[in-house]
Amino acid sequence: MRLLPSRPSPTAQIKEAVRGIHVSAGLDAPRSGTEEPIVIGVTSPNIGDGKTTVALALAGSLSTDFGANVMLVDGDFHTPSLGKVYGLEDEDGLKEVLAGTTSLDSASHALPSPGLRVLASGRADGNPARLARSLQLVELLKEMKRRNKYVVVDLPAALNSMTAPTLAKRCDGVVVVVHAFKTSSSDLERTMDLLHGANVLGVVINRSSTSIPSWVARMLDIKG
Q: What topology is assigned to 37-220 in CATH?
């Protein structure tokens, strides 16, 4: 096992968004230590909206701020990013664990933040839809929850992958990341429709000013 390098610190805007996730998920409430571990998925309407950046920041924050064991998982079978971030593109990962060719211990890697580990997507071929629906994934998430207080899953972009809704429903809660200058109101509306049945914790507006775009406020029925 090798210790992977740390990544650049998130911007102040991303940190503020992560604090908002803490509130939405009730993570800022006093912790008794007896709460059930939770799986938080992070998705977006389109590729490039910033979901991976938010997932990285959220996992790091949960590990640092709460002193918790956290597993960061690349669940984007179509366009995986965490392998590139940490130089794990040629390493075993989630796909190999699901296929039974390696173990979770062997495929996951420790990060500099205490208690934080990463599981990249892996190299193996596999049908993304079949993997998303598999009993093996259900059991693996249970195993990760037994070992960690939080599991943060970087999900596929909802409008670019048929597996995103299925994977979102495997999570206890889902955060949707939108790009302030690129995401259209129709894209967010379609994304929320696709995520029907999942527990959407909230929307993170990436690259925004302090104000909430009016179309987002209207769609989410945010009162001024």
A: Rossmann fold (3.40.50)
